[in-house]
Design a protein that fits this description.
The protein has 13 helices and four strands. It is mostly helical. The strands form two sheets. Strands 1-2 form a two-stranded antiparallel ribbon. The chain has a two-stranded antiparallel ribbon with strand order 3-4. Helix 3 packs antiparallel against helix 4, helix 4 crosses helix 5 and helix 6 runs antiparallel to helix 7. Its main location: membrane.
């Protein structure tokens, strides 16, 4: 049974904690030199404090201490999150190499795998439930590390990653209520509260950035929450639901990788090929770009909710709509043209 009063209080505990903790964390970032310095790729014109992800982490933790969720994998999820946070803090302070960050993400994922939290099956129409067998571990690693980096890569504008993940979490929260996945409900509401509290400081014009500490933590947690809930759904094409929810960051990441590979460039090299930069290059303002991406994210979130409990005919219709919307998004950003 869902206790709405407790959920609301848990949300506000996380919200207030993240909101207030951001102030001392901002001072800490300035004091230790964890600053995001401007360059030709970035939008901001002056050095900005990072480490804002610590406020999201501790805000979420405060919400969880109030809500007291129980789950067999909770300890390993927390240990993985701790590794992600430590890796993010080191990156925000010292700027780690991509391989070093990848090692941290892999260690965090290994905690999940060792506990048995893996993507072990998908559901297909006619065929039914398909056990992934020996591929389970590989797919789990790809999913967790892939989503972690997708959220990290979309964190290029004020409030962008915070807002996109919040919209995804709202969709996941609604689906968890419908499917009675209560652990997902509790984790989602805690993260939502912390995100909202930090967004007060992070929306354009931002006073602090979440840094890799925040974007990696959010990506890791969204990947984990989707494994706890969305992949466990036994409806047709259940594995597509989390992909639709996270369509914007996934599409942005794959598109950037494709464009770098096409130009024979290092696929891990940071550049301005991401959709948010390209929207701004097309003439949209900072705030307009953020709101456009929020809008597309909200539409995909709504489609995912419908998809999770739809008939087979509706499922195929939503898949087609999703592809068409992604194409429109790419045209809007000037990535492709109408033919």
């Amino acid at each position: 049974m869902i206790f709405w009063k407790e959920l609301l209080i848990g949300f506000f505990v996380a919200f207030i904690s993240a909101l207030l903790l951001t102030y001392p964390i901002k001072s800490l970032a300035v004091r230790i030199g964890a600053m995001d310095k401007p360059n030709k790729r970035k939008i901001h014109q002056k050095a900005m404090p990072r480490l804002g992800g610590l406020a999201i982490f501790f805000g979420t933790l405060a919400g969880m201490l109030y809500l007291e969720p129980e789950h067999e994998h909770l300890l390993e999820i927390f240990l993985g999150a701790l590794v992600i946070i430590i890796t993010g803090v080191l990156d925000d302070k010292y700027t780690l190499k991509p391989l070093q960050k990848l090692v941290g993400q892999f260690v965090a994922t290994s905690f999940l795998i060792s506990s048995g939290l893996i993507i072990d099956r998908i559901t297909l129409p006619i065929i039914g439930v398909v056990d992934l067998g020996f591929l389970s571990v590989l797919i789990t690693v790809i999913w967790v590390i892939g989503i972690t980096n997708a959220i990290n890569l979309i964190d290029g504008l004020d409030g962008l990653a915070t807002g996109v993940t919040s919209i995804a979490l709202i969709s996941i929260f609604i689906m968890s209520i419908l499917d009675q996945q209560f652990i997902v409900t509790l984790l989602s509401i805690g993260l939502l509260g912390a995100n909202a509290g930090f967004l007060f400081h992070n929306f354009h014009p931002a006073k602090i950035y979440m840094g890799d500490t925040g974007s990696n933590f959010l990506g890791y947690m969204v990947a984990v929450i989707s494994m706890l809930g969305l992949f466990k759904n036994l409806t047709f094409f259940s594995f597509i639901v989390p992909i639709i929810v996270l369509a914007v960051p996934i599409f942005d990441t794959l598109l950037a990788i494709y464009q770098r590979a096409k130009s024979n460039e290092n696929i891990m090299q940071a550049d301005r090929r991401h959709l948010h930069y390209q929207l701004m290059d097309k003439g949209f303002s900072h705030r307009q770009t953020i709101l456009i991406i929020y809008g597309f994210s909200a539409v995909f979130g709504a489609l995912a909710i419908i998809f999770a409990n739809a008939s087979l005919t509706v499922l195929f219709a939503i898949i087609i709509i999703t592809v068409v919307l992604l194409h429109i998004f790419a045209i809007l950003a000037g990535v492709t043209t109408v033919k």
